[in-house]
């Protein structure tokens, strides 16, 4: 009995010893494995990126492997833009799309490296049963996205073009209008980003805004009636003035004013400089006729003014000359000077107007074409009434010490000034419909200019005797000189 108990105890002791040894061995084995795993500098086994196994690879090896395989994933991905029958195709890479491999590899490497050792070991061992696949995210370049979209926008952009009108050989030439188109860049950008984020090829249907022209062929075709015409005459032969008339007319010829637009004669004529073709000719300065640059452009201004008032356009600025001019009745002239005198009028019709200006023989001709809105029998006339006469101021006297006392010469004859009221008369079918005040004009009075001598009689006598004496000496000298020549 005792012997049996001893044997049983011995067996238990032996078994316990064996079990303790096995546990000790297993514990040591686990610790060794844990140490090896925790000290590994490679990505842990069981980790993949976008389905590509990167376990047991270093970060550098994983990056190289992914770079090769993932970059090819964009080769067959495209975004197409469609507009009508046209197509523009771009690869994802054109938009700067690329995989963020570096971040994905970093995330893979850091997996299982946080926390206490036991916790880390448990996380790493779990990969043997439940592998982890890390998503490799991607980025795109907003600048490149905008560049490509702007390329397409520029390709589909169409500028709206107005119908134009011109006159060639006395006939109107009118072009068709053209609608425009502007792509909706914001909508296209949103669609592109949505496609990129889907990581699948896609297409963008281009949308945008249709822009309408401001002037149509139909409107221009309705603006070809002669609604105002006037001409003035000049005497050819003054080359500078003739050239100024030609250049000035050419500069305003072909001007088109849309409804509501204002015309400025100074702007139409352009800078009145020698470089712009203008030459010296007679101008009025401070009530006197002088030689100056661009002389003659006021005659064009006056002619156009009368065409405009006959067309019944709205005159917004007009100045008469300081002196009366001979090519137009008093009260119907218009002057330009610097920035302080200009002729301006507004197209107050519902259609475009076309200005034609030219010189022919001894005439300056201005025609205004537009849409005739009045009765065909309507006729406009102007009546000019002198309402006051302005006396000439006191004569301007200039003393000349070289002229004998009592001498009097009129060097310039002045003029009386006048105030003129202009009335507009409207007729239809030969019947006067209205007579209304239209404008006032004031022409200044200028003084006679007189030169008087101030040389005293005795001074004149002394100079005469001195001159006579000098003459005798000179005769003697000349006689002697001539005598010696003929010797």
In words, what does this structure look like?
This protein has 487 residues and is α+β, with helices and mostly antiparallel strands. The chain contains eleven helices and 27 strands. The strands form ten sheets. A four-stranded antiparallel β-sheet has the order 13-21-20-14. It has a three-stranded mixed β-sheet with strand order 2-1-6, covered by helices on one side. Helix 2 packs across helix 3 and helix 5 crosses helix 6. The chain is elongated, with a radius of gyration of 51 Å. The relative contact order is 0.08. The C terminus is likely disordered.
Radius of gyration: 51 Å
Oligomer: single chain
- Uncertain runs are 13-25, 470-487
Shape descriptor reads: elongated
Percentage of β-strand residues: 25-35%
**Percent of residues in helices:** 25-40%
Number of helices: 11
Q: What is the number of E strands?
A: 27
Q: Can you summarize the main beta sheet? A: 4 strands, antiparallel
Strand order of the largest sheet: 13-21-20-14
What is the CA–CA distance across the termini? 197 Å
Give me the secondary-structure category. Answer: alpha+beta
Q: Summarize model confidence as the mean pLDDT.
A: 88
């Amino acid at each position: 009995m005792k012997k049996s108990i001893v044997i049983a105890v011995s067996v238990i002791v032996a078994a316990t010893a064996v079990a303790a040894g096995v546990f000790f061995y297993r514990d040591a084995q686990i610790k060794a494995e844990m140490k090896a795993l925790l000290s590994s500098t490679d990505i842990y086994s069981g980790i993949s990126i976008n389905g590509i196994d990167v376990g047991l690879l270093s970060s550098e090896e994983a990056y190289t492997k992914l770079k090769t395989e993932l970059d090819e994933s964009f080769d067959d991905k495209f975004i197409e833009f469609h507009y009508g029958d046209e197509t523009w195709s771009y690869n994802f890479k054109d938009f700067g799309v690329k995989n963020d491999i570096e971040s994905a590899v970093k995330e893979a490497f850091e997996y299982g490296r946080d926390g206490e050792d036991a916790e880390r070991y448990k996380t790493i061992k779990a990969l043997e049963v439940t592998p982890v696949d890390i998503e490799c995210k991607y980025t795109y370049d907003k600048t490149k996205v905008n560049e490509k979209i702007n390329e397409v926008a520029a390709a589909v952009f169409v500028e709206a073009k107005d119908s134009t009108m011109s006159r060639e050989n006395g006939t109107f030439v009118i072009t068709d209008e053209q609608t425009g188109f502007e792509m909706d860049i914001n909508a296209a950008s949103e669609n592109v980003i949505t496609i990129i984020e889907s990581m699948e090829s896609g297409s963008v249907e281009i949308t945008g805004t249709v822009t309408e022209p401001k002037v149509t062929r139909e409107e221009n075709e309705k603006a070809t009636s002669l609604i105002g015409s006037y001409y003035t005459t000049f005497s050819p032969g003054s080359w500078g003035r003739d050239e100024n008339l030609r250049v000035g007319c050419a500069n305003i010829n072909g001007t088109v004013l849309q409804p509501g637009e204002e015309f400025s004669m100074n702007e139409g004529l352009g800078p009145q400089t020698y470089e712009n073709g203008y030459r010296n000719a007679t101008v009025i300065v401070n009530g006197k006729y002088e030689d100056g640059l661009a002389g003659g452009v006021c005659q064009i201004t006056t002619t156009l003014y009368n065409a405009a008032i006959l067309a019944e356009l709205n005159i917004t600025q007009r100045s008469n000359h300081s002196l009366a001019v001979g090519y137009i009745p008093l009260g119907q002239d218009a002057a330009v000077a610097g920035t302080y005198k200009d002729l301006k009028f507004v197209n107050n019709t519902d259609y475009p107007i076309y200005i034609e200006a030219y010189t022919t023989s001894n005439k300056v001709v201005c025609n205004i074409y537009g849409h005739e809105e009045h009765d065909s029998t309507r006729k406009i006339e102007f009546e000019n009434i002198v309402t006051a006469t302005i006396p000439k101021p006191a004569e301007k006297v200039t003393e000349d010490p070289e002229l004998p006392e009592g001498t009097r010469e009129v060097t310039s004859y002045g003029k009386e000034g006048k105030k003129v009221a202009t009335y507009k008369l409207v007729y239809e079918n030969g019947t006067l419909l209205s007579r209304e005040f239209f404008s006032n004009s004031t022409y200044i009075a200028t003084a006679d200019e007189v030169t008087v001598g101030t040389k005293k009689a005795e001074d004149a006598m002394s100079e005469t005797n001195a001159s006579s004496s000098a003459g005798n000496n000179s005769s003697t000298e000349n006689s002697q000189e001539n005598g010696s020549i003929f010797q």
